[in-house]
UniProtKB/TrEMBL annotation:
Organism of provenance: Ciona savignyi
Family label: Belongs to the small GTPase superfamily. Rab family.
Molecular function via GO: GTP binding; GTPase activity
Lineage of source species: Eukaryota, Metazoa, Chordata, Tunicata, Ascidiacea
UniProt keyword annotations, A-Z: Nucleotide-binding
Protein name: Uncharacterized protein
Highest taxon, organism lineage: Eukaryota
Amino acid sequence: MKELSAKVLVLGDQGVGKTSMIVRYAQQVFNDNSTPTIGAAYFESFEEVGDRRLKLKIWDTAGQERFKSMIPMYYRNSKAALIVFDITNSASFLAAQKWATELHQHIEEKLVLFVVGNKADLSKARKVKQSDANAYAEMIGGHFREVSAFSNEGIREMFMDLCVKLIHET
Ligand code: GDP
Ligand code: MG
């Protein structure tokens, strides 16, 4: 079976649920290789898609995101990025645009990009319209997904979608 591996970045403001999303998805394999020097933590997960085995190397931020900037090494050799916001927090959605800019300043290669609205379980307190998030994702060449790390809604589907796109687009 052909093996591929891909580095996946997870960006977004503090508190949007990045770590919760990753832990929800990658709970089967947890690599506590926290690297405080670069303000990141690293998770691994394996998926089979068709005749391919794909290793996702998921890079979480570890507090560094409060500076709204990660060091260049964090971005190196990444193939995909999830830019996460909280659907109940408009500021976190505005910040997604800042994260997308930051990302494109560090990476010139084509990336598989998802704009992810987390906390879908709190849709009664929604502050960000799905249509706005969708339009924004399209504008930056990404795909919009709404998920909940809390209820687990859409999490696995999103990561599987990501795997399929990684195999087809990179
Ligand atoms: P990070 O700073 O982006 O890594 O965010 P965390 O994963 O640490 O989550 C921040 C807070 O949001 C925590 O209190 C989580 O329990 C909460 N949280 C994360 N995801 C969800 C979600 O989908 N729904 C709800 N209601 N709370 C969430
Ligand atoms: Mg975190």
